[in-house]
Amino acid sequence: MQTFLEEVNERIGGVPIQSCYHCRKCTAGCPIAFAMEYNPDQIIKMIQMGMRDKVLNSSSIWLCASCETCVTRCPNEVDIARMMDVLREMAIESDVDVKEKNILKFHEAFLSNVKSGGRINEPLMIVNYKLKSGDYFSDMKMGLSMFMKGKLSLFSPKTKDIKSVRKIFEETKKLK
Predict the structure, then answer these.
(1) What sign for the dihedral angle of Cα 106, 108, 109, 110?
(2) CATH 1.10.1060.10: which residues of the chain?
(3) Which residue from 35, 65, 95, 156 could staple onto 121, CB 3.0 to 4.6 Å apart?
(4) Which residues contact 147 (CB under 8 A, 6 or more apart)?
(5) Contact predicate 47/17, CB 8 Å
(6) pLDDT tens string 6-59
(7) CA 148 to chain CA centroid, nearest Å
(8) Which of 52, 49, 29 is nearest to 39 (CA)?
(9) What is the gyration radius of the CA atoms in the chain, in angstroms?
(10) 69: burial class by Cβ within 10 Å (0-12, 13-18, 19+)?
(11) Which fold has domain 4-93?
């Protein structure tokens, strides 16, 4: 049976997590570390120690913005942003109680939008997210302001080859 570390490494591909020697450059550069329950360096350490439940139940894996600052700072090129993606996928597959439920709902709305149109149609994605989250009016004033300034359009361009986009989704589903 695979250890948690082996499972994460296999799913990430590339540089193995044990290449991390905890210099903390990833954490020093992370713009979200201040809000995380465990910083990126601590997440890596917990993976190395086999703390599966603690990692998959943490809010930190959902707060990562995937900006890849950590990856560019890592002297050993450990792909921490990809690691966080993998951990989120594993949390979903394990049916853990996600602490950051609205982040997951946004993620689902985003992917659904890309899958259906090949690109982001912001108004449709916003509606989808609002329906999933139940948070209908919290940012309505900002949305209206963005629309009035031309920052949010009602119509988005369509992808010409939507079949290829859907094929990508089907192929990635097979990999799981």
Answers:
(1) positive
(2) 4-93
(3) 156
(4) none
(5) yes
(6) 999 999 988 899 999 999 999 999 999 999 999 999 999 999 999 999 999 999
(7) 30
(8) 29
(9) 18
(10) buried
(11) Fumarate Reductase Iron-sulfur Protein; Chain B, domain 2 (1.10.1060)
